[in-house]
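Subject: Sanity check before I submit

Could someone independently write out the structure tokens for this chain? I want to compare against mine line by line before I put it in a report. The sequence has 357 residues.
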Amino acid sequence: MMRAVASVGGARRELSAFLWSKSSLLHAVKRTLSLEARVTQFLTYITCSSQRIYKSEGPLLGSLCISSPLNSLSMQRSLILGYHSTLVQWLPAKCISNASVELKMENDLVRFNMGKQFDRNGSSTKGKRTIKRVKMSKKAKLNELRFYRLKAKKKMNSPNPEVRIRYKLEKAKRKEAWLIEKLRKFEVPKAPVETYDPEILTEEERFYLKRTGEKKKNYVPVGRRGVFGGVVLNMHLHWKKHETVKVICKPCKPGQVHEYAEELARLSRGIVIDMKPNNTIIFYRGKNYVQPKVMSPPDTLSKAKALEKYRFEQSLEHTSEFIEKLEKELEEYHNHLARYRKEKEKDKDKEEEVTPQ
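---
Independent answer below. Compare away.
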């Protein structure tokens, strides 16, 4: 009887020891899984966070300073690095931060250290600071404008003529540079010239077309705007019923008629028959003329843009003349100073000669 009781007690003890070992094993597995979940969460936080600066203090980083549940430091390191490599493989590049992460192993503890941040070129951006522009108040702006106005007034009312001339010259040169920059916006790139067979006219045909063009009253004016899309459009409208058309250029500078003739011949595909001394050009449409679908070429300015360009050109012309005038005045003033100094030196030499030694 006693033996049976002892055997039953031994069986119970063995069963409880087996169950305790199994429960301890399950507890260790659970701790390992919790470690893996924490590491995954931390690495996801590093790679997907949009912030550039991280603090070492916080609940997440504090919870990651863990001790080894399996008493195996090498197993932790391999586990963490393996998870990091897998995350880098499937995460997109835009979710990965540019901050460097260092893994430090001190006193059997795993710690993550956030290093310096790097920009696209690889240089550190920790010490760089963005300079914020301070907005000026209305009163400060007015004071600044008043200061520059008084400074300009002082130069204009200076008793020294050289200071006045140089101030005007600098101002005119600034305006000239501004006008040149404005005129660059009106430069239209020329379209590639399409190949076509130019028609050859005999002397008799030219004489006949010249006489008919002089007798007819249809004409197209080219004014201060110069050659723009509307001029070519009017030429095509005249060629609908007439073979020739007169182009009257007023106002026109000397030699500018030839430029207008070349430009209009390129844009309208017409033939120049004659050029009169009163700045009149006679154009012939051609024997095989076909009216184009788009009569106003795309590489020309509109009427409003052409007028704006003319105004800038006129201002640039007057400014250039004014600069030449000021440069001439400054040169004359320097010559006057040189003559005055020479005369003064001569007077001193005469006085020295007259005075007895």
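---
OP: Matches mine. For the report I'm noting this point. The chain is about 55% helix and 10% strand.
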